[in-house]
Design goal:
Two copies of one chain form a homodimer.
Chain A (H helix, E strand, L loop, with lengths): L20 E5 H18 L2 E2 L9 H8 L6 E3 L2 H9 L4 E4 L8 H9 L3 E6 L2 H14 L3 E7 L14 H9 L5 E8 L10 H24 L6 E4 L2 H6 L8 E2 L9 H6 L9 E11 L4 E4 L3 H4 L16 E4 L9 E6 L4 E5 L14 E5 L3 H5 L4 E5 L7 E4 L5
Parallel strand pairs in A: 1-16, 2-9, 3-4, 4-5, 5-6, 6-7, 7-8, 8-9
Antiparallel strand pairs in A: 1-10, 10-11, 10-15, 11-14, 12-15, 13-14, 16-17
GO molecular function, one term (chains A, B): alanine racemase activity
EC number (chains A, B): 5.1.1.1
Protein name (chains A, B): Alanine racemase
């Protein structure tokens, strides 16, 4: 239940938007989208955007540049929504659980090429038995662990071939390929580290595919990706597709990783100044952890942005020397990072924009984007599909 | 946009619920509700539950025990929703911003007793001018700072009387009382500290009310509250009402603060086991930071529960020696806190329930509750009103 406000559904400019609200700058989105399309073309792989960041068909249309794109999803709510909006090729990139198989079957029957991922014999057997019982074929990718950070089978593990055999043992399931995600790229700090992690991701995926092919399994899809590894990869030979999501918006973590600049960040949370606590040097705004998220992604980076960087609402320009220091549910507290706070920048009732540490987490707190095109006029309201 | 899944809208038991999902145990909610009603009766104050925790009329009906309760809200989405569900007396307890005044006016005109809070002369003037222009009277409470933790005017500050004068200078606005929230209660650890913070909250609010009354202002409402200070207060003499929210569900932070036991926690996130990473000792589940929230509220307590405590899905009993160690967007990673992980407790495709650090943050990640009544049968699906 997230109903549009009955009073202020279509504000004309940012100043009319009831806060907190998520602002999307379409120009920056367009520029980020163009840059990634050029990059994957240079690498010679297909782009399969991860829509867990945007959860919006309108954003996907910008990312795709008008092409029919295959996508990656993190929830079945995304799968249903994008399928109903015309997307036909979808990878559900979270290890499959039995309670989700009826929804998978429903989408496959309706004509969706919906593939699942798994990394255990047990899951392969469940998927195969379910597909057989339902009279459908569920295509699966085996998830690989190339950096020890989360899930997946090591590329050289005997389990890889065992899972492939279970998927190919009867009707009901089919091996479609392998996939991996180098989450470890987020702990890299130097160019060399990024390049090495990207190469491990590529080499792990390709070597697993080669082992499977050597054992006579068909491997059509070799899928890798994260925004940092795709930007920093020396090459992606042997890979067929790149899964990237956060590049669409960028965020403060990505800026620290060097995959975008702070000025490229396309989303921000619009907030109103609701109080001054002068004795404690605090500006209170009405964007708390529900609007900004609790993400502290920059805590371990050279620049710790707290819960977000603060920008002038009208110009979008960064206000130096302050950050969102702490949050409660619907309160954000802005303090000076050094020196005195310039109170004149924060009049009571005025607005600011807050750039997110982690675009996926912050965007997920909102059910729509108020879209601007560089300036302050609201040129559209785009919905998101949250939940599961 | 949070649509109910087309396939699994009304599961019969927990085992049928597509994960991740929010489970609410109505028996525990009832017990928590009864306990707080008895407590505020003992203290001789009115209960004004803060519905930012539950955001559900069905939950409020349990909290109220059938009475017509006044409530506290943190968003205007909550105000609209609860008003449309019959609640007539609402305190909007986040400092008012100008962009929200049209929505406030709309609700007041429709018959809602909706009060706002503020702590600056500027906000008082804006509210008064807006009310005058619209031909309505907006009632306001002055927010007080009794613990230096967030917003508010110090009870002995000359500003208190100045704001009161602006609110009373003409038609359009009216002073209705004072309110404070002792957020500092969350950093207390001993009974003496809790009692002292509760007493500062009470004494600060009452002394501000007395100063205003001595200056001939009418002060009907003297409002305080937080779950810890209301449970630990030695008394609430001079206070008229208590605002409490999280007591309804309890959570791991409240358990650490001693306001509830771990067994009293009424909500949990149902998750499926989607992977085993045996070489790293990790169980992967499909509840990540979007389902659990990024809240690390227990990080500074004697027992650090990571991103949540893990329970058996069928019995709800705590599984000792493990916790949710880390999260990605749709992945949770369960590890042993000491010793070896007992893999037999986490079969692939099996379910667990995760107790939240902070009930408000975790519940806000979901748009509905799957309600159980002590057991595993789903006895209801209750909606929440998220967003703004």
């Amino acid at each position: 239940m997230n109903e549009l406000s009955p009073v202020a559904t279509r504000p004309k400019t940012i100043a009319d938007v009831a806060t907190p609200a998520l602002i999307l700058d379409r120009r920056k989105l367009q520029s980020n989208a163009d840059r990634m399309r050029a990059r994957v073309a240079e690498l010679g792989v297909q782009l399969r955007p991860h829509v867990k960041t945007c959860k919006s068909i309108d954003v996907l249309r910008v990312l795709s540049g008008g092409a029919d794109l295959a996508i990656t999803v993190s929830t079945l709510a995304e799968a249903r929504y994008f399928f109903e909006n015309g997307v036909r090729d979808i990878l559900y990139a979270v290890g499959i659980a039995p309670s989700k198989l009826p929804q998978i079957a429903d989408l496959i029957r309706r004509g969706c090429t919906l593939r699942v991922i798994l990394d255990t014999v047990e899951a392969a057997e469940m998927v195969q038995a379910f597909g057989l019982a339902e009279g459908i074929t569920i295509e699966a990718l085996i998830e690989l662990d190339t950096d020890g950070c989360r899930a997946g089978v090591a590329p050289n593990d005997e389990l890889l071939l065992e899972i492939a055999r279970r998927l190919s043992s009867d009707r009901g399931a089919r091996l479609a390929g392998v996939m991996t995600h180098a989450g470890g790229s987020y702990s890299a700090r130097t160019l060399g580290e990024f390049e090495d992690i990207a190469e491990r991701e590529r080499a792990g995926a390709v070597s697993a595919a080669e082992r499977l092919r050597a054992a006579s399994f068909q491997v059509e899809i070799v899928s890798v990706g994260s925004t940092p590894t795709v930007y920093y990869a020396r090459g992606l030979e042997g890979v067929t597709e790149a899964r990237v999501g956060v590049y669409a918006f960028g965020d403060l973590v990505q800026a620290e990783l060097g995959t975008c600049g702070v000025d490229d960040i396309a989303i921000s949370v619009l907030a109103s100044v609701i109080g001054h606590n002068r004795s404690h040097g605090r500006v209170l705004v009405d964007a708390g952890f529900l609007a900004l998220s609790r993400d502290r992604g920059t805590a371990d980076f050279p620049v710790d942005w707290g819960y977000g960087a603060v920008c002038d609402a009208a110009t979008g320009a960064l206000i130096d020397g302050v950050r969102v220091e702490s949050t409660n549910q619907e309160h954000g507290i802005i303090t000076a990072t050094s020196g005195e706070l310039d109170w004149s920048r924060f009049p009571i009732g005025g607005q600011v924009r807050v750039l997110p540490n982690h675009a996926c987490a912050t965007a997920a707190a909102h059910d729509r984007y108020f879209v601007v095109d560089g300036g302050n006029d609201i040129v559209g309201v785009w919905e998101r599909v949250n939940g599961w």
